[in-house]
Amino acid sequence: MGHDLKDLESTDMGVWLDHIHPEERNKIWKTFEKYLETGENFRLEYRFRKHNENYIHIEENVICLKDENGSVNRVLGIIKDITERKLTQERLEDSEEKYRSFIQNFDGIAFQLDENFFPEFMHGKVEEITGYSEEKFLSGQFLWIDIIHSADKPLVIEDINNIQKSPYNSSRELDFRIIHSNGRTKWVHQCYYKIQGKDGKPEKYQGVIYDITEKKNTEEALEKIEAIRNKEIHHRIKNNLQVISSLLDLQAEKFNDRECIKNSEVLTAFRESQDRVMSIALIHEELHEGEGRDTLNFSPYLEKLVENLFQTYRLGDKEISLIMNLEEDIFFDMDTAVPLGMIVNELVSNSLKYAFPDRKTGEIRINLFREGKAGNSSGTDEKDGEKELTEKCTGYTLIISDNGIGIPEKIDFENPDTLGLQLVTILVEQLDSEIELKRNKGTRFKIRFNVKQD
Fold this sequence. Notes:
This protein has twelve helices and 17 strands. By secondary structure, it is an alpha+beta fold. It is rod-shaped and about 145 Å long. 21% of the residues are buried.
């Protein structure tokens, strides 16, 4: 305490009281007087000034000794320095206060689960987010899994199984829906991790849950707005392309009135240009009539495109049959759909115009299917003489064939003279794809290309 024992023994009560902290001095003296009157033993805690003017916390246990009349004539006391204990207690209380303040203002749920995923504690806005109190979850009256939306429950169970199998300190995040006690659906974001139990005890799981309903509703509203905007854009583009097609048709009619060019290449060029424009317009029409997505369900579009071509190129009394084998649910974005649609337009038009000059019957086939990984070098690196895909892609194959007379051998497909085949070559390069031509028993074009996965 910083004082010599003899100094304290020779001092009166006033000197002792003078060493007690001023904020506690009167209270301690009144307590002391009270117990001297009753003769009861008592205990005091107060701050005492050391010789170096610093204060320490002490605990004083006092025993009152009485004379034969029952009056206190002497006291015995034991004084203990409890400064370290007091400081530890104050730090603990301060920490608890900070934690209590944090939980009260925490905009979510903090939780700890045992090895069986039963809650050991849940603090925060439990009732505000779920409609149920902490006590109901901790007592087992309500289980967290029971308030999860039925459609999301398999996803949550799978996530639990994954983290149980994972090493310690692994963390996982998941968005899912819960059903509030009032019946309303809420979106929550759960972030939790696995911690190792101490001294051989089972593992535990700690984490937080946030209400993200407002965020999800905002995202859905923005998606709807974006979908409406995209539909309007596609509608306007389609209308503009139809205007261009109509202008080409009017110009062709003007030339058609002149006897000298009725059967010339001019009218053919106008018709082919119209077909190319309409192949693009049809894409925007399909996107406009769809669900506002940025991708096109390509097989239904292909059916409409080829049907329009068959109506455009009616070949007198010829019966040209069409056989289409198109895989369903193949979606392409504009960067793939537009060039691929124009390729189909050119190749099918060529078959209709040139494949069956001296025949009344014929057959055109179109196949489209996934094949896993296309055999082109798109997105590849050279390594040890082998090509390896550097990005995840899905490979597709498009085959357009007819059983007509076939493309003449004199036509060099690598360097074609006709605008249509030149356009096909350019579009194939644009898709970074491969094209293969076979001329036996008709004409067969096989195009293989990759599409990056989202």
